[in-house]
C-alpha cells in the first residue's frame, strides 16, 4: 500500500484532489467484472484540459491552443502538453473501444482520439487530424524512447465521427478504427518497449496551432481481447 495523490473527474468539470492510502486498482479487471462498464469518475487526468464536462456516458473536452503530443522526429520539436484522461491496468489481454465526435474541429492539426501515455518519451495514439475543408488525416503515432513516427491516410473532411479500438496482447498493441462502431479496420500493430507491465490508456484531445474546439467521447467500453492470436506462420524456434 502507498500514499498517492489523485485527481479524479467530476461531473461538473472540476478537479477534486485528495491524498489516500490505497492498493493498486486494476481498472480493466473492474470493468470486465462489470460487463465492460467504465466508471468515468474513476479516470484520472495526466494533464487537465482548458475545460471539460461529463454528461451521462459522454465526456466533452475543450482544447487550449498550442497543445500537442510529439517527440523529435522530422519536426525536431518536443511537444508534451496535450490533456490526457486515462485508466490503469496490468491486464495483458483486453480491448478498449471509444467513439469520438470532432464536428467542431476547424484548424489544422485539431485532433482527438485514443492514447496510451506512459511518459513523455513513450506513448501511442490514434486520431483524426483536421487539415482543411477537403480532407483530414486518419492516423496513429507510436513514440518509443523519445522518437515519434506518424502513419496516416487521407479521409474526406466531412467525416466527423470515428470509433477506435485499442487492444493489448502482452507488450504488443493494435489500433483499429471504424465509421459505424461495428466493422473495424486495422491502423497499426506495434511493440511498445516501456509497456510490458502496468500501463495507462484512455483518451486525449489537443490543438497544436492557434485553435480551440470541443471533442466528444462516448460509448466507452472494455471487452475481452478481440485481437486474436496469429494463426499463420509460427514463431521461430
- CATH fold call: Jelly Rolls
CATH class: Mainly Beta
Question: What's the overall geometry?
Answer: globular
Helical content, roughly?
A: under 10%
Mean pLDDT value: 91
Radius of gyration: 17 Å
Distance between the termini: 41 Å
Run of helices and strands: EEHEEEEEEEEEEEEEEEEE
What would you call the structural class? mainly beta
Low-confidence stretches: 1-7, 11-15, 17-21
What is the tally of helical segments? 1
Tell me which CATH architecture applies here. Answer: Sandwich
Report on this structure:
This protein is an all-beta fold and 237 residues long. It has one domain: Jelly Rolls (Sandwich). Helices cover 3% and strands 54% of the residues. It is built from 1 helix and 19 strands. It has one helix at 27-33; strands at residues 2-9, 15-22, 44-47, 51-55, 58-62, 69-71, 78-80, 84-89, 93-101, 111-119, 122-130, 135-144, 147-148, 151-156, 161-169, 172-178, 185-191, 199-206, 214-223. The strands form 4 sheets. Strands 3, 8, 10, 11, 12, 13, 14 and 18 form an 8-stranded antiparallel sheet that branches. Strands 4-5-19-9-15-16-17 form a 7-stranded antiparallel sheet. The N and C termini lie far apart (41 Å). Residues 1-7, 11-15 and 17-21 have low confidence and may be disordered.
Summary?
The protein is mainly beta. The protein contains one helix and 19 strands.
Which characteristics define this entry?
237 residues, mainly beta, Jelly Rolls, 1 helix, 54% strand, disordered N terminus
Amino acid at each position: 500500500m502507498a500514499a498517492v495523490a489523485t485527481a479524479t473527474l467530476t461531473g461538473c468539470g472540476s478537479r477534486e484532489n485528495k491524498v489516500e492510502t490505497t492498493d493498486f486498482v486494476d481498472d480493466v479487471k473492474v470493468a470486465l467484472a462489470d460487463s465492460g462498464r467504465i466508471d468515468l469518475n474513476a479516470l484520472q487526468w495526466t494533464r487537465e484540459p482548458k475545460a471539460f464536462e461529463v454528461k451521462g456516458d459522454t465526456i466533452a473536452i475543450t482544447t487550449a491552443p498550442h497543445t500537442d503530443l510529439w517527440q523529435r522526429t522530422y519536426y525536431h520539436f518536443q511537444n508534451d502538453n496535450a490533456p490526457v484522461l486515462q485508466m490503469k491496468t496490468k491486464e495483458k489481454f483486453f480491448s478498449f473501444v471509444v467513439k469520438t465526435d470532432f464536428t467542431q474541429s476547424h484548424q489544422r492539426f485539431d485532433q482527438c482520439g485514443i492514447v496510451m501515455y506512459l511518459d513523455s518519451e513513450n506513448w501511442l495514439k490514434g486520431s483524426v487530424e483536421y487539415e482543411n475543408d477537403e480532407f483530414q488525416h486518419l492516423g496513429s503515432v507510436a513514440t518509443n524512447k523519445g522518437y515519434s513516427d506518424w502513419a496516416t491516410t487521407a479521409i474526406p473532411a466531412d467525416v466527423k465521427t470515428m470509433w477506435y479500438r485499442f487492444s493489448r496482447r502482452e507488450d504488443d498493441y493494435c489500433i483499429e478504427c471504424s465509421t459505424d462502431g461495428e466493422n473495424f479496420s486495422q491502423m497499426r500493430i506495434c511493440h511498445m518497449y516501456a509497456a510490458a507491465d502496468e500501463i495507462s490508456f484512455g483518451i486525449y484531445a489537443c490543438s497544436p496551432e492557434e485553435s480551440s474546439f470541443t471533442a466528444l467521447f462516448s460509448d466507452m467500453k472494455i471487452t475481452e481481447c478481440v485481437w486474436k492470436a496469429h494463426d499463420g506462420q509460427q514463431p521461430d524456434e
